[in-house]
Every structure is written in C-alpha cells, then in structure tokens.
Design a protein that fits this description.
The chain is of the alpha+beta class. The chain is built from one helix and five strands, in the order ββββαβ. It has a five-stranded antiparallel beta sheet with strand order 4-3-2-1-5, with helices on one face. A hairpin with a 5-residue loop joins strand 3 and strand 4. The N and C termini lie far apart (about 30 Å).
Amino acid sequence: MASSNFEITLSRFRALDGKELEVVGFAERASEEKPEYVVARHRDNKRRIGVYEDRAEAVDALTSDFGPLRQFA
C-alpha cells in the first residue's frame, strides 16, 4: 500500500446498534477521482475495521459485520 496524503470521506453510516462508521478513501493527490485504497473505520476513534479496493467492497463488509446501515451526511 502506497503512502497517501489526502483523505476523502466517501460515506458515513449509523448501524442499528448506534455505532457511527465511515468509509474514507486515500489518494496521493486531492484531484484523483479514484482513491488508491478505501478504509472502513469507526467515526469516533478512527479505529480501522478494514482496508478495501473500493467503496462498494467496504460498504458490503460493513453491512456484513454490522447489519443494515443508515447513511447520513
């Protein structure tokens, strides 16, 4: 995994148990359309849940681990 400088929030969710989660992309330049990799993590403490190729894979993993998710801004 390359060292990336820019963090782009792709989605934020709330699980049924109240946990707030987010999917964040990392890229070398802010102008990149596709992040190098995507991280799913807890919003409060930034603890990583997993690293994925893209947003869809991360959301699928979160849904599998936490059940139905409600997206919010």
